[in-house]
């Protein structure tokens, strides 16, 4: 909604020093969204005057028609002599009044005017178009003024070129601000000034002499007013002041009848429509359309109507889409016999001498659905969708009648037709201190009552208030709406900043705390979190080489997916992470380590069919339990993907490429945060390489349970998905790790006694996992073992084919004494003996 400041001053006596930016700040503080304040004419300086064309000489020999004009500008040029001006426009004639800018003036955009020779003649100024004065985008011709203005009159003041216009983004709950009346009400409230309400008019009572109207659907049209004006003079132009107000508000002047109806709509917020009475056949009706009926609207489009559309009719059938756009069959002809379509929600043209004015109130939902069904958005539909004051129809019709009588020489018909449903004012019971409790501020009853009265409410009561909501505020429906009005008018910026006080015993759940710890640990290890959409398709599962009978193929399909290529919910985190890795690698980032934690969706086949719950009541506990039973299992997983270098090259040495070991270590990092210990074993599981895939187990309730997999991806998967070579990945079940671990943090045991370090190198078959050897050493070393670290893996001819050497550093320490060499050696030998017994290891060098 564009609101000129000069127009607002007509309804509110703002101090002269108040600027558009000052007003914008006040309205923003009150909760309106003022997007811009347009400074019109700020860079315009005169002389800019009215001129009368005295003579026109047509110049020939040029590529386009050129005219050499003599223009009377009165005494504005200091001599009283006619001004000679070269002009290329063709839409004016001798005797017309035009707008002339004289040498020394500056037009919008910094365009300086001076006398110059062009087309063989000296041009002493310029005859202006609307676009050159910043009045619009029309370059088709110059401005031709009404004949009543004297040459030399200041055109800057005449055309109201200097003004400020507020552009307000009106939200759906503030439909009343789609009018100058609504914006002026907010302005008056913001400055504590009285409002001159333009809707307070003397409206004659309805009688039986008006144009006949029948409304068959009172639910969709609860108010319909019809007025007639006869004797309208077709050729009367729209006065300049009205044209300029319409232009500043963003509407194009068309003709007097169009401009009057649009002007009243902008002023009061009530859309109007005007009909040529001679083209109406019988009574005006309001009803639902019959399926298949056709209507040609004012934009020239023939539309096939649906049974839900609300239409305006006469005896021949539909003549308009109610609240959206009128029909072409009843548009008003101009004085030349031509027909001009009306603006949205306005009249058609001023070429008819007898006009029927319609001012009606239509159901917001009905208008919105019709507008969207026909893809037809108009100024009228925008207002009806957001809520129009149902009690403004009679005043708007009276205002239009008064303007047509005043400006077009018409005569108001004695008949007044009004079909309406009695409206019961909405009342709300609210505690006087409700706004105080919502805002945490002690406003007091007097402030609450005053603020509610300022928005138009009637308030009664003491401790409990009975609030009657005004007809133009359909958004006020409950006590919280009233509290919001008080808070916004008192100023959101005046609300104190206080920290919330959560009740004791509340906070993050154990699952949430683990998720945060895992994220911090992986980020600290150099991984970057990548959040992905939880949708997959069969193509990516094919690319991952997932077998046809794999449980990951059993997915939950969405009824209305965002993409037909990804219609299902994910059963693994890898598709999204691998797509992110491929995208970043394609954009030049080749050393990548990404991670994600999130839900996967695993249907079991035992889910029940959900029932549709009613919306008229809160669902019962049994109904909620039934909905929960219809959901698939949704465990939280953690996954990582790696490609490129894990450690960068530098003066310290070459780069180290990432590999399957890093993926396994990432899984161990996740497990450590859960307080669980992973057991690693060789496995074959898609999409991993069969020789470089590890199954990850945890002990839960006395048994080993598979928690996930890690390793290097299969070459066929890498090729199918376009991934970098040797890409590695890991994925684990976080919920399972949480059940296997303990959330309690065990403080490390610190001993003041020295450590005894023993190294041991064991030769085993290449097929024996290092984890199995490590577990045997731990079990054999006993309680004195503090830590165990694998520091070397060696293979060579001297060991024999199929053999490898694993070298471990064992640290022993006692909590109460210094260990002797014999005690450390005995513990080492016990560890080696257990490893020999379990894995067939041989002590290297023995």
UniProtKB/TrEMBL annotation:
Residues 42-156 form the TRNA-binding domain. Its EC number is 6.1.1.20. InterPro entries: aa-tRNA-synth_II/BPL/LPL (IPR045864), B3/B4_tRNA-bd (IPR005146), DNA-bd_dom_put_sf (IPR009061), Fdx_antiC-bd (IPR005121), Fdx_antiC-bd_sf (IPR036690), NA-bd_OB-fold (IPR012340), Phe-tRNA-ligase_IIc_bsu (IPR045060), Phe-tRNA-ligase_IIc_bsu_bact (IPR004532). It comes from the Bacteria. Mg(2+) binds at residues 475, 481, 484-485. NCBIfam families: pheT_bact. Tetramer of two alpha and two beta subunits. This is Phenylalanine--tRNA ligase beta subunit. It comes from Streptomyces carpaticus.
